[in-house]
Specification:
By secondary structure, the protein is α/β, with parallel strands linked by helices. The protein is built from seven helices and 16 strands. Strands 2-1-3-4-5 form a five-stranded parallel beta sheet, sandwiched between helices. A five-stranded antiparallel beta sheet has the order 11-10-9-13-12. α2 runs parallel beside α3.
Length: 245
């Protein structure tokens, strides 16, 4: 089981609704990293933790309502946000749309509606359009992470956590400090799909993360204590990237 679930912050001042949301989202396989009742408290949480998505009520305790809070979050963190509110009048809707939420759901709502909105919120970002969610393990490629589909859920894998990627026939194996992930991608497709400045092909069978290089020898690298061969065809590009890194 892939551990890096989509992380959600709930900003809701009705404790029963917040608890119900957390319970149902956890059942669906998401990770709720916190529940807060005010916009001010959400900004305190976000100073230390960056969830993948925020569920935000509009009417909140404190001086900031949900729309004002969302405006600050967009300016500071650019985290996708879904409004969940009982206020669906045109004036409220117009104000809410001005801060560009990923979705706007009116109470009462079905948890299936929330789940669909969450997935659409993730897909609404800078998605690698060459991938096909129904067929590929990697369904979403963002600037600092990928999302991997496992059955009906999406799980995240941070680029920084990848140490090296190894070819295994028509598959590739992503090595992290904690575990490995076997994906139905060959190494060429992975390198094209997950294009990132810290990932570099150094051999026909290996991609490494430049951030994890410990030592460079004539014919190999030591990457987080793993010996990775350097192909002759890749050495010149490796030298360029090392000098620029």
């Amino acid at each position: 089981m892939i551990k890096n679930k989509i992380q959600i912050l709930i900003v809701e001042d009705e404790p029963i609704i917040a608890a119900d949301l957390q319970r149902n989202l956890t059942k669906l396989g998401y990770e709720v990293i916190g529940r807060v009742a005010s916009g001010e408290d959400s900004l305190v949480v976000l100073a230390d933790t960056k969830p993948d998505i925020i569920l935000m009520d509009i009417q909140l305790k404190g001086n900031l309502d949900g729309i004002e809070t969302a405006d600050q979050i967009e300016k500071l963190y650019q985290i996708p946000l879904i409004f969940v509110t009982s206020n669906s009048d045109k004036k409220t809707l117009d104000r809410a749309m001005s801060v560009k939420p990923r979705a706007f759901l009116s109470k009462p709502f079905r948890i299936s509606d929330i789940a669909s909105a969450i997935e659409l919120a993730v897909f609404g970002q800078d998605v690698d359009e060459s991938s096909t969610p129904e067929e590929d393990d990697i369904t979403i490629v963002l600037n600092d992470r990928i999302f991997i589909r496992e059955k009906t859920f999406l799980y995240k894998l941070l680029i920084d956590d990848m140490i090296y990627i190894e070819a295994d026939g028509s598959y590739c194996i992503v090595h992290t400090a904690d575990r490995t992930y076997t994906l139905s991608y060959n190494l060429n497709k992975f390198f094209t799909s997950v294009a990132h400045e810290n990932l570099l092909r150094v051999h026909r069978s290996y991609i490494i993360n430049l951030r994890h290089i410990d030592r460079i020898a004539q014919d190999h690298l030591l990457v987080n204590d793993n010996k990775i061969p350097i192909g002759k065809a890749y050495r010149e590009e490796l030298n360029k990237r090392i000098r620029a890194f």
